[in-house]
Amino acid sequence: MKILNRYIVKVLLFYTLGVMGVWLGVYTFFNFIGEVDLIGRANYTTLSAIIYVLADLPETVYSHSSVIILLGCLLGMGHLASTSQLIIIRGCGISIMQIARKTVSAALIFIFVIILLGEFIAPLTMQYAESFKAKALKRNTAITNQQGFWLKDNDNIIHIRKNFDGRVFGDVTLIKLQQDKQLSAIFYANRALFEDNRLTLEKPKHYQFNQNAKLTQIQSKNTQKHNIKVSFDQDLIKALEKKPDKLSSWDLYKHIDFLQDNNLASNTFEVELYKRLVKPATLVAMLLICMLFVFGSLRDATLGKKIFLGVVIALLFELSSRIGGAISLRFDYDPLFSASMPTLIVLTVALFLLKRKSAS
After folding, report:
1. Spatial distance between the Cα atoms of 43 and 318, rounded to a whole number of angstroms
2. Are 288 and 347 in contact (CB under 8 A)?
3. I need a labelling partner for 154 at 20 to 30 A (CA). Which of 53, 118, 127, 232 fits?
4. What is the DSSP-derived secondary structure letter of residue 245?
5. Residues 49, 38: contact at Cβ < 8 Å?
6. Which residue from 147, 131, 150 is spatially nearest to 139, judged by alpha carbons?
7. Rounded to an integer, what distance in angstroms lies between the CA atom of residue 227 and that of residue 200?
8. Interatomic CA distance for residues 203 and 224, integer angstroms
């Protein structure tokens, strides 16, 4: 049984890597075409465009992982079926449900590796890619990363860790410099508001630095508000705002917690977080739907046509799941319910039909 398990995983891994190679090749080609217009501006060369596109690959793998794993596993099972290996496996006393369980187990291993890639590696490579591109194009007004963004505005340096809607900020640090670039004061606030070119820090901690020839005195105090006038506008802040799908799951959770504590709408972030949590179950549901077509009779249609029909149905199901998230935002439904209910229904129906086919 262990030998059979390793063989199935090997076949599925081979086809999944093949699909990933083709998928990334197509996306890399078109992403590079999109960067061609920027080549020649400032220090942005052809090599810079290639580096930027390659650094974006982990994010591409993560965002399209469901389709890649689905196609890879189905092509692998299709290969076993077309070469009559599935008939031999079933002749050894292994049921359809057992074969489906092995396929799902292999797919879950793949998606676990992809999740690790997306949560820990993709944010770093995306941060490097955006920073590298900004420097090559000499766009150094602001630096963005997974921990928010930095802005230099005259003699002020501002670090905003959480940007929710371009107006409400969280975890804001304001560093004030003197004319000679010496440190003057530091303000830190859990919450800040940006409106009409004014940044208002609410209940900030104020650290004042008084320097003389030998010593630097630091005075600490709490204030109710601190206002500063800034030279940047709302358009720049909107450009720096990170979308929910670009945040890690942990950052999504922290955003939701902050928004709820401040009585702000968090539905957009909740939909993205719950969608990620049910993603493995959604992939399993799509695989089980397609397995019904793999184990179907070949008298009515060829195996290729059946697999294609199964993939279309599975992708329509994933599309409907995404539409469900949008509907929950529009009509204020429970995000967890809208993200999980379609998956649970399809999973239940697919398991029921596979058991019936396995028993027949």
Report:
1. 41
2. yes
3. 127
4. G
5. yes
6. 131
7. 5
8. 4
Q: What is the largest CA-CA distance in the chain?
A: 93
Backbone CA torsion sign across 23, 136, 160, 221: positive
Mind giving me the DSSP string for 88-146? HHHHTT--HHHHHHHHHHHHHHHHHHHHHIIIIIHHHHHHHHHHHHHHHTT--SEEEET
Structure tokens at 215: 């010593």
- Dig out the tokens for 258 from the structure: 């902050």
Can you read off the two tokens belonging to residue 43?
């220090």
Size of the chain, expressed as the number of residues it contains: 360
Closest to 357 measured CA to CA, from 81, 17, 1, 100: 100
Contact yes or no for 358/95 (Cβ under 8 A): yes
Q: Which two tokens stand for residue 202?
A: 């609410």
Match 């529009």 to its residue by tokens: 330
Query: pLDDT per position in the chain (360 positions), as tens?
Result: 678 888 888 888 898 899 899 889 998 999 899 888 888 888 889 998 999 999 889 888 888 887 888 888 888 888 888 788 888 887 788 888 888 888 888 888 888 888 888 888 887 888 788 778 877 877 644 555 545 777 877 788 888 888 777 788 888 999 988 877 788 889 999 989 988 788 999 989 998 888 776 677 788 888 888 888 887 776 666 656 667 777 778 878 877 876 777 676 777 788 888 888 888 887 888 788 777 777 755 445 466 666 676 667 766 766 776 676 666 666 667 777 777 777 788 788 888 888 887 776
The b/e string for 116-131 (b: 16+ C-beta within 10 A; e otherwise) is ebbeeebbebbbebbb
- Taking phi first (over 0 means left), then psi (-120 to 50 degrees means alpha), and beta for anything else, what does residue 261 get? alpha
- Give the Cα separation of 242 and 235 in Å (integer): 14
SS3 311: helix
Task: Tell which residue, 18, 24, 63, 92, has the closest CA to residue 246.
Answer: 63
Instruction: Output the CA torsion 45→47→52→56 (10° steps).
Output: 150
SS3 222: strand
